[in-house]
Design brief:
Elements lengths: L2 H19 L5 E5 L20 E5 L5 E4 L4 H4 L2 H7 L1
Antiparallel strand pairs: 1-2, 2-3
């Protein structure tokens, strides 16, 4: 599996995890996918776009997800994104 395929697998896993752990209809889930239109992509946070951004409507829940493979985790870019 290529690095980009692993990354997309992790992103899909995060979305499934969010839906499983928060099974409600009040979630707005935005995913940074190549086929997503700009309005459905996560917001820019500190100069970076997270892979997954979740916000609940009417209650205080926000989840920011960044998919990292083992190879990608220890890069300078990943460190800056996580900060």
């Amino acid at each position: 599996m290529s690095e980009s395929a692993r990354h997309m697998h992790l992103v899909s896993f995060m979305v499934r995890w969010v839906r499983k752990t928060h099974p409600t209809d009040d979630l707005c889930i935005l995913v940074d996918e190549p086929n997503s239109i700009a309005a459905n992509k996560p917001p820019n946070i500190g100069g970076y776009y997270p892979d997954v951004f979740v916000k609940a409507v009417g209650r205080p829940l926000m989840i920011i997800g960044e998919a990292k493979t083992v190879r990608d985790l220890e890069t300078c870019r990943s460190e800056l994104q996580l900060i």
